């Protein structure tokens, strides 16, 4: 054993193998060191000091920001450290709104978890938190409550580093420090694009998904309303985690059963809308290539990306596909078909994405002043509704979605993961339709969680250059390359890193869980008889029926600089 390659953690020799900090090595040996401000995808902030360890000289080091050195002797669980961590927790709780039972994050709060873990039975310091909620409810996507903020900075770093949005940052100093928008304006007046990634990393519930459940319950209780619902592809592999099912398992059948028990009249799968998107986007792509249209064609499925484009890169709006998102395509058809119905239709969409709430409220997606999607709820909200209903989700028998829209393709299912839109389009435009060709397309380079993936494909006499991007900072990198003269034919952009499986409205996922969710969608794709969108007979019947003469009206939209 070479001592230079090892250090000792709580008496255990641990090999140093490229780890950037002590925290990685400590977790490597199975010790769950407490943290608030550490995320492996973000820069090191080192503010919370919960991850302090004792070194061989009796000094204290922050494990998240201390690089490992050969020969170090580290202790993680001494009386001194336990007392230190309890003091930190008490100080945080003394400046924190402690209305835990009415908090949206009750039982899902890291501060609450650590207070229980370290046996905090009382707080010695007076509570300096505001006596009432200090909320900013202006956004239709998320809600901020400064009274619950512990200044860990996670939201600031994800907004700036991962998303390059910069809607929030630290303001003031010392005891007056807080997280704020520029000039303290409401969030709705900031550059925020509603992606909800700040919700994903907030440990305390200071930023949460906007709650629209009450509107859904009200509609379900109204006998004069026909309440319909569509469920996005990524929801089926993330919802089970909180309800007794393995993360990544496809629970679409159980979701359908639960929604029916809750009182929904009709339950549909947004994947049919994704199939329509594939056909329309493919036709648009081929037309632009053949007729010399504006390239690159950039996907339009992600509302967070659309807002980012409008606010930061409006010069690329002509490049954005005119296709509506799958959610809006499906909803516009459903509402159009029910115009003469005896009962008023109230349509709900269950989405992995907080930005879908903004999309549904846009004027572009209203017919005669009424929105096609009346309410968007996220995966998190549906989980809470299922729990409130008392439904034992894990014991439900799976059920099928309603006809006449009950048939989907695997190409539409994989929309929920980064690269899925690209792969679905490639399946559509490929001249070889064999099963072997599907395997070839799958290995073209669009799969995986890298933030920027590039691939080149031969199409006739042309070589197409394609980029698959997730995370808005990565979108900026690629768009700046295009502005500097680099050529791409097609760019898929998803605001959330990894795509919709890691959407801001999903239960939080670590890297392993993101992979499980992606694998779950690819497994669902492989198990379907129909793998290409153009082979879905329901799609063909729609073009011959309700869409006849209405394709552009119901399936397309033109975004303009706001």
Low confidence ranges: none
By DSSP (H or I, 4+ residues per run), the number of helices equals 19
Instruction: Say how many strands there are.
Output: 20
Structural class: alpha/beta
Helix content class: 25-40%
At CATH's second level, what is the architecture of the domain at 213-272 and 326-395?
3-Layer(aba) Sandwich
Report the CATH C-level class of the domain at 213-272 and 326-395: Alpha Beta
For the sheet with most strands, the description reads: 4 strands, parallel
The neighbouring-strand order within the major sheet is 12-11-14-17
CATH topology of the domain at 213-272 and 326-395: Rossmann fold
Return the average pLDDT rounded to an integer: 93
Radius of gyration: 25 Å
Strand content: 5-15%
Q: Tell me, briefly, the overall form.
A: globular
Ends distance? 64 Å
3D structure, described in words:
- The chain is of the alpha/beta class and 562 residues long.
- Among the domains are: 3-77, Roll (Ubiquitin-like (UB roll)); 88-209, 2-Layer Sandwich (Alpha-Beta Plaits); 213-272 and 326-395, Rossmann fold, CATH 3.40.50.1780.
- It contains 19 helices and 20 strands.
- The termini are far apart.
Please render the helix and strand layout as text.
Elements lengths: L5 E4 L2 E4 L6 H7 L23 E3 L5 E3 L10 E2 L4 H16 L15 H8 L17 E2 L5 E4 L8 H9 L6 E3 L6 E3 L16 H5 L5 E3 L3 H8 L4 E7 L20 H11 L3 E4 L1 H21 L5 E2 L4 H10 L13 H12 L6 E8 L3 H7 L4 E2 L2 E2 L3 E4 H11 L20 H4 L6 H10 L5 H8 L9 E8 L2 E9 L1 H12 L6 E5 L16 H16 L10 H8 L6 H5 L7
Parallel strand pairs: 1-5, 11-12, 11-14, 13-20, 14-17, 19-20
Antiparallel strand pairs: 1-2, 3-4, 6-7, 7-10, 8-9, 15-16, 18-19
């Amino acid at each position: 054993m070479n001592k230079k390659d090892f250090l000792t953690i709580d008496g255990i020799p641990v090999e140093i193998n490229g780890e950037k900090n002590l925290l990685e090595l400590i977790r490597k040996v199975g010790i769950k060191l407490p943290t608030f401000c550490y995320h492996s995808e973000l820069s090191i902030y080192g503010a919370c000091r919960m991850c302090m360890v004792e070194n061989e000289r009796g000094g204290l080091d922050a494990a998240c920001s201390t690089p490992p050195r050969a020969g170090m002797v580290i202790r993680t669980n001494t009386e001194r450290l336990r007392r230190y961590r309890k003091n930190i927790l008490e100080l945080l709780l003394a400046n924190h709104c402690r209305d835990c039972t009415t908090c949206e994050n009750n039982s899902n709060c890291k501060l609450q978890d650590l207070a229980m873990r370290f046996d905090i039975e009382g707080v010695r310091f007076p509570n300096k938190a505001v006596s009432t909620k200090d909320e900013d409810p202006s956004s239709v996507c998320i809600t901020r409550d400064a009274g619950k903020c512990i200044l860990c900075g996670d939201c600031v770093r994800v907004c700036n580093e991962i998303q390059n949005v910069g809607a929030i940052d630290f303001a003031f100093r010392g005891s007056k420090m807080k997280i704020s928008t520029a000039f303290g304006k409401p969030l709705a007046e900031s550059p925020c694009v509603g992606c909800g990634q700040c919700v994903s990393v907030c440990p305390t519930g200071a930023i949460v998904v906007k709650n629209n459940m009450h509107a859904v319950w009200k509609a379900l209780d109204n006998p004069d309303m026909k309440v319909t619902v569509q469920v996005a592809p990524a929801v089926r592999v993330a919802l089970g985690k909180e309800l007794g099912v393995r993360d990544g398992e496809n629970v679409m059948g159980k979701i359908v059963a639960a929604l029916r028990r809750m009182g929904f009249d009709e339950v549909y799968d947004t994947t049919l809308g994704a199939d329509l998107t594939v056909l329309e986007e493919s036709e648009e792509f081929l037309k632009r290539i053949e007729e010399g249209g504006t390239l690159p064609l950039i996907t339009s499925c992600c509302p967070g990306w659309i807002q980012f484009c409008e606010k930061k890169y409006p010069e690329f709006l002509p490049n954005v596909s005119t296709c509506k998102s799958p959610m809006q395509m499906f909803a516009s058809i459903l509402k159009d078909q029910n115009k003469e119905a005896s009962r008023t239709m109230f349509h709900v969409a269950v989405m992995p994405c907080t930005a879908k709430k903004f999309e549904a409220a846009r004027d572009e997606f209203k017919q005669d002043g009424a929105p096609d999607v009346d309410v968007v709820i996220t995966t998190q909200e549906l989980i809470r509704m299922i729990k409130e209903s008392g439904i034992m989700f894990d014991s439900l028998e799976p059920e099928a979605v309603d006809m006449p829209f009950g048939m989907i393709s695997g190409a539409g299912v994989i929309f929920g993961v980064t690269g899925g839109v690209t792969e679905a389009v490639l399946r559509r435009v490929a001249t070889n339709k064999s099963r072997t060709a599907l395997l070839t397309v799958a290995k073209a380079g669009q799969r995986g969680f890298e933030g920027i993936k590039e691939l080149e494909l031969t199409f006739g006499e042309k070589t197409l250059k394609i980029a698959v991007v997730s995370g808005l900072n990565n979108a900026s990198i690629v768009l700046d390359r295009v502005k500097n003269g680099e050529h791409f034919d097609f760019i898929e952009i998803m605001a959330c890193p990894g795509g919709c499986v890691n959407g801001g409205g999903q239960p939080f996922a670590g890297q392993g869980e993101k992979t499980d969710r992606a694998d779950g969608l690819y497994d669902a794709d492989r198990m379907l008889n129909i793998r290409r969108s153009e082979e879905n007979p329901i799609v063909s019947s729609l073009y011959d029926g309700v869409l006849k003469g209405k394709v552009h009206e119901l399936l397309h939209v033109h975004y303009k600089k706001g």
